[in-house]
Amino acid sequence: MRSLFISDLHLTPGRPDITRAFLRFLEQDAPTARQLYILGDFFEYWIGDDVMDEFHLQIAGALRRLSEHGVSISFMHGNRDFLVGERFCQLAGCTALPDPSVILLAKEPVVLMHGDSLCTLDTSYIRFRKVVRNPLIQKLFLSFPKRMRRKLADRLREKSMSAAREKTEPSMDVTPEAVTDALTQYQSKTLIHGHTHKPAIHDLEDGQQRIVLGDWDTYGWVLEHNPNGFDLKKFTI
């Protein structure tokens, strides 16, 4: 049976081409899989389940139809959509997946992560991540009026893009030590993550591997696991 992994679609009404590609993927490819894992940054941003509009309901409905077809869907938060909550998951027929998580593929443990926590050289972001993932901070943010949340989210996105331009390339990528620590902690030989937008299958020491999912932009990326192993596939949006 096939298991599929995707991340970093950054779905937004401003990129209808990516939305169409994703909906086509759900209709044509995903129904023959046993499981679909979404590993974060599925949406460009998320400021609360109570702000869902027609666009978000369209995506949730498409996922729900796939779930009703018999495909198990798991959703992991990313750094852009960590406020996706129970209401969206219920509408979409998906199960929330902690970051990190361990699943079994061919009876072997596989570590799943979004990937941002592996970028340990980016110390300013790691500090910021710790703050915004605090449940009390999230509860406070979600108590603000919707208009205020939108303004704060826009401001944070602008600040993030500005900071990214000043950071060095190594600081924005995962560190080998963090990868090794994750594999050791969970006694696994395979780590799958997104976030860095650098799709590849990296062979590591002692038969270990790190598989990086691709972001959807000019191309869409899907990792498939089947009886023959892993296959990282891309297609034109």
Automatic annotation (TrEMBL):
Residues at which substrate binds: N79, R80, D122, S160, K167, H195
Enzyme Commission numbers on file: 3.6.1.54
Membrane topology label: Peripheral membrane protein
Domain Calcineurin-like phosphoesterase residue range list: 1-199
EC class of the enzyme, as a word: hydrolase
Enzymatic reactions: UDP-2-N,3-O-bis[(3R)-3-hydroxytetradecanoyl]-alpha-D-glucosamine + H2O = 2-N,3-O-bis[(3R)-3-hydroxytetradecanoyl]-alpha-D-glucosaminyl 1-phosphate + UMP + 2 H(+)
Cellular localization per UniProt: Cell inner membrane
Names of required cofactors: Mn(2+)
Family: Belongs to the LpxH family.
Protein name in the entry: UDP-2,3-diacylglucosamine hydrolase
